[in-house]
Amino acid sequence: MKLRILFSVLFFFLSLTIGFAQGNDTPTKQINHNVHSWIGLLTTHRLSDNWGVTADFIVRRDDFLKEPGFYFARLGGGYWFNENVSISGAYGNLWLYRPQLRDKNFTLEYRFDQQLVVNSTLWKFNVSQRFRAESRWREIVDGDQTAGRTFSERIRYLYTFRLPISRDLSVPQLMFSNEILLQFGKQIVNNPLDQIRLFLGIRHSLGKGIAYDLGYFPIFQQTAAGNVYNLNHTVRLLFYLSSRKSKTNNHVVEMDELE
């Protein structure tokens, strides 16, 4: 337990250090501010006490709701060692809107991932940690056309704190999370630190395996140019559905977060 707490604290301070380091302005740095919205459905169905399947669908809209951003679909399976530790793998497709292309509106990314999820408690907080490794095949955009595909790997560490403010399960929990995404590959030269994703909002259980979270989701992203950054101010609304064949009580919703 002490090791898990120490591990969480170390990663927390690491993310803060990276964030402050990115904030040191230089004459060549450019930060683009964008407004996005994320809406999604994430589902888990436990076929038994140990085995289960997952299916997710995420939509991002740009300029809040006016323009397409991306569509992401993911299907996978997992093994639950117990209620606090699970592993899983999944295949996903991401369709990214590219209005500058002449022959099509979206580029297609293929993705495989493997992950480990560990749930625990820390004082009054419910803590979730997720370690994910992704293999990605993305289309290259050269001007107004695509030019083949590139392969890269990405590792992600997500930690989430949820604070119940009442014993009444219908009362929303306060929620904070941070995710660090690092990427590697032949085409990854200037931006190995891909993104830092924060979230501040609420998690609300509606009972019978249904829940949602709603809040502010700022994403700080370094582009391939190296000196150009995107700061995406995002409103996030995710719905969670959880069911379990061997149990009638589907009250606790597993968290497996977004794209």
What does this structure look like?
With 259 residues, this protein is mainly β. It has a single domain, classed as Porin (Beta Barrel), CATH 2.40.160. Helix content is 8%, strand content 64%. It is built from one helix and twelve strands, in the order αββββββββββββ. Strands 1, 2, 3, 4, 5, 6, 7, 8, 9, 10, 11 and 12 form a twelve-stranded mixed β-sheet that branches. A hairpin with a 5-residue loop joins strand 11 and strand 12.
Map the helices and strands.
Layout: H1 2-22, E1 30-46, E2 51-62, E3 67-80, E4 85-97, E5 106-122, E6 125-142, E7 145-163, E8 173-184, E9 193-207, E10 210-216, E11 219-222, E12 228-244
Parallel strand pairs: 1-12
Antiparallel strand pairs: 1-2, 2-3, 3-4, 4-5, 5-6, 6-7, 7-8, 8-9, 9-10, 9-11, 10-12, 11-12
Shape: globular
Runs in which pLDDT lies below 50 for 5 or more consecutive residues are 9-13, 248-253
Report the helical percentage: under 10%
Could you give the distance between the termini?
Answer: 29 Å
Which class in CATH terms? Mainly Beta
Tally of distinct domains: 1
Question: How large is the radius of gyration?
Answer: 19 Å
| Amount of beta strand | over 45%
Q: Might you state the CATH topology name? A: Porin
Please tally the β strands and state the result: 12
Largest sheet: 12 strands, mixed
Q: Label the CATH architecture.
A: Beta Barrel
**Overall pLDDT metric:** 88
> Secondary-structure element order, as H and E?
HEEEEEEEEEEEE
Helix/strand-derived category reads: mainly beta
Number of helices: 1
